[in-house]
Specification:
about 5% strand; iron-sulfur; 3-stranded antiparallel sheet; mainly alpha; 3 strands
């Protein structure tokens, strides 16, 4: 784990604790104390100690440079600030990790390696994660070439049960980039958008893509699982992905261009039409007990007989929330925009059946942040995060990089 990865994860844990402290000082203080004790117990790891010291230093410097001031309208826009802070923070982290990986990629090809490979990039090789999980379940083999791929894959799937697709709207850097493009350029289309029927057809592509990836993972014969995990196709999967993304062919370049253009017309275009993680998390989220629920006793459509559609207008997925009591759509991101836009407090909540235990945006973000940052940290501390593949072996396989396909074959 690189020092920047450690900083990102520690910052996420600290942000979760700060949210918890703002909700309950006693509980927040207790959680902070427990976290500090665990940190001291695990402080034998020098990298985490350095990262923790750096994190505290940056925090103190920021406190000194930027006084504790509140914007005059912070309370009115606290929801938007909370979400944008989370998205901006993770987007910046994604950019820096991409730069770090680009430098690593350059140096490993020049045989002058001194930058640590950020293991978190393995989140972008889901096929390797799927094959490794199959080998683990069917043959008891633990893959150590890309263990972080398995960790992040399972983390995202389980997070969909806990927080639905909140990862997509609160954390994902690609979703944030897509939304930023939409905000910047939507006015140039003068209100034009993708027709509803075309939009419904395009939304199905991500499920077809997910089905295809699943077919690739489960079509490999059982006796070829181990040979594949020991092959250059798996060991170099991350470098092959980077190679194809930074040096795309004609089809790849056209696809990227199409996604950029679609993102200026449709909010979250990549998430809606392509992302296999989003498709999988959407399906898993259907099993989550927490859903957006409409209280008819408070809704203006029922109490005042008004044709209020503010919830649907605020929803980035255009879900007709005002017409249903429980939102079971797999495209629901649990972004809380509908509840924020609702003029009647409590009419829309993310809650259990019968509107029990409503979850606020703060609690949702707290749960998500703590889960997606603490799991990788614990995986690292238990020795199941960093790749065990020697860098010398990866360097020796560099000449084979051009022959490794973007999507593997089982020949």
């Amino acid at each position: 784990m690189s020092i920047f990865e450690s900083l990102v994860l520690l910052t996420g844990v600290a942000a979760a604790l700060s949210i918890l402290f703002s909700l309950s000082r006693a509980l927040g203080a207790f959680a902070a104390f427990v976290s500090a004790v665990i940190g001291l117990v695990l402080a034998h790891d020098p990298l985490l100690v350095i990262a923790a010291i750096s994190f505290i230093a940056v925090l103190c410097a920021g406190r000194w440079i930027i006084p504790n001031r509140r914007q005059p309208n912070f309370s009115y826009h606290r929801f938007d600030h909370l979400r944008e802070l989370s998205q901006n923070g993770f987007a910046i982290a994604l950019i820096i990790i991409a730069i770090q990986y680009a430098l690593y990629n350059q140096q490993i090809q020049d045989s002058s390696l001194w930058i640590t490979r950020p293991s978190i990039v393995d989140i972008y090789i889901p096929i390797s994660a799927g094959v490794a999980i199959r080998a683990w379940i069917e043959q008891g083999l633990v893959d150590m070439a890309h263990p972080s791929a398995v960790v992040m894959f399972l983390t995202l799937v389980v997070s969909a049960l806990l927080t639905k697709r909140a990862f997509c709207s609160w954390v994902c850097g690609i979703g944030f980039l897509s939304e930023t493009l939409y905000r910047r350029f939507k006015h140039r289309w003068k209100g034009k958008t993708i027709p509803a029927k075309a939009d419904q057809v395009l939304r199905g592509f991500k499920y077809l893509f997910l089905l295809w990836l699943g077919h690739l993972i489960f079509s490999i014969p059982g006796d070829k699982l181990v040979p594949y995990l020991e092959s250059e196709k798996h060991i170099m999967a991350d470098l092959a992905m980077w190679h194809h993304m930074t040096q795309p062919g004609v089809i790849g370049a056209l696809f990227i261009a199409a996604m950029v253009v679609l993102s200026t017309i449709k909010r979250y275009a990549f998430c809606h039409y392509v992302c296999p993680y989003g498709a999988l998390m959407g399906i898993v989220s259907l099993a989550s007990p927490f859903k957006i629920r409409r209280n008819k006793a408070l809704c203006l459509r029922s109490t005042d007989d008004k044709d209020c559609r503010k919830c649907q207008q605020a929803c980035p997925n255009n879900i007709p929330v005002q017409e249903i009591e429980t939102v079971r759509a797999p495209d629901c991101h649990a972004c809380h925009r509908c509840a924020q836009a609702c003029p009647k407090a409590g009419a829309l909540t993310l809650s259990l059946p019968q509107h029990r235990y409503p979850v606020s945006a703060k609690v949702l973000l707290l749960t998500l942040l703590f889960f997606v940052t603490s799991v990788p940290l614990l995986s690292y501390l238990t020795g199941y995060w960093q790749s065990a593949t020697p860098e010398a072996l990866r360097q020796a396989m560099i000449p084979l990089l051009d022959s490794i396909p973007l999507l593997p074959t089982w020949d």
